[in-house]
Amino acid sequence: MKKTKNVYNIYPAWEFDREVRDLEEQSRNGWHLVKGGLFHCKFAFDDNVQYRYALDFNHSIDDPVRYRATFAEQGWEFINSTFNGWHYFRKVYDQSLPEEEYQIYTDTASQQEMANRWRRIAYALGGTELVLGALLIIGNFRHPAIHSICMALGAVLLGLLLTLGAKWIGRSYRRKASGWSLLPVLGLFSVSLVFMGLRTGSLRTTTQYVVPEDDSAWQYRFEVRLPDIYTLDISVDAEAPVSVSLAKGSHDDGSPDWSYDALPCYFEAEGTQMEQTVHMFLTPGTYLIYTKYLPGAKPGQSGMFRYELN
Questions:
Q1: What is the DSSP letter of 29?
Q2: DSSP track, 81-108
Q3: Which residues contact 83 (CB under 8 A, 6 or more apart)?
């Protein structure tokens, strides 16, 4: 039989009492906490003892030695601390002792003080996430993108969870807000980070052309690695009217000749000036920006083309 195991779970701060109950259930089964954490806990097996557990939240301890000694004087053994300010303690269980012996805080004022320490941080973080979510939502009106939408939703949901959790913690009633409610938020952030790291970054090109004798077109190729909503900005300053269209490569057989399927993105300059912005959902592949002078252009006339893809 294995003597150690890892258990993975997520506990919102306002449900620290549920985490304590789960730790004590593990101890009744012979598994005792040796390291607590935000996402996982490590246990060691020993069926000769049973512990009761307590959690304290304090992110600003001036004297860690004195802090732990205070709990040790009450019979609490320090296990470990987490980076976000939670401290794990345990005490050997003796059923002959009253239940008050297994509570870190025995008076209402002390309990309220611990709840207030978390509440201040939760309100600050929750407010920050809500503001971030609002800014991302506003930004999506101009440059919509799947990864940015996921980040906006994740920030808003996380902000709501933190602010509502700050209201719930320390109260006599407990809302049934399980740690599983954090999983969709973490999932949205994970998807967003993947898209941010792998999708095509901003593409910019500025090219000057001269109308050739054969009236040929000019092409600019770019690659898209992940499906997303992209924004294409086109700016033309030419001496003759031009058209701009977008197409996607339909196959690549290794030959120098490509076959492209036209996309519903076609613009003709009114006169010699054009500025267009279009939002498009693009799938992975090679794309072609196709620029051509319209009939009436004379050889030798020039133009400046700017393309930007975000």
A1: T
A2: E-TTSEEEEEEE--TTS-GGGG-S--SH
A3: 38
pLDDT tens digit string along 150-194? 777 777 877 877 777 777 665 543 444 444 455 565 665 665 665
Burial class (CB in 10 A: 0-12, 13-18, 19+), 206: exposed
H or E stretch covering 71: helix 64-72
In the chain, the percentage of residues whose pLDDT exceeds 90 is 19
Give me the residue label for tokens 């004798």. 213
* Alpha-carbon gap, residue 138 to 190, rounded angstroms: 21
Q: Which residue has the tokens 């611990």?
A: 114
Instruction: Say whether 278 sits in a helix, a strand or coil.
Output: strand
> Which one, of 166, 161, 158, 164, lies nearest residue 116 by Cα?
166
pLDDT at 114 over 60: yes
Question: Best-predicted range by mean pLDDT among 42-56, 183-197, 232-246?
Answer: 42-56
Q: Please give the span between the terminal C-alpha atoms of the chain, in angstroms, as a whole number.
A: 55
* Whether the predicted pLDDT of 99 surpasses 80: yes
Q: How far apart are CA 44 and CA 288, in angstroms?
A: 60
Nearest to 122 by CA among 164, 64, 185: 164
292 forms beta bridges with 243
Burial class from Cβ neighbours inside 10 Å (0-12, 13-18, 19+) for residue 188 reads buried
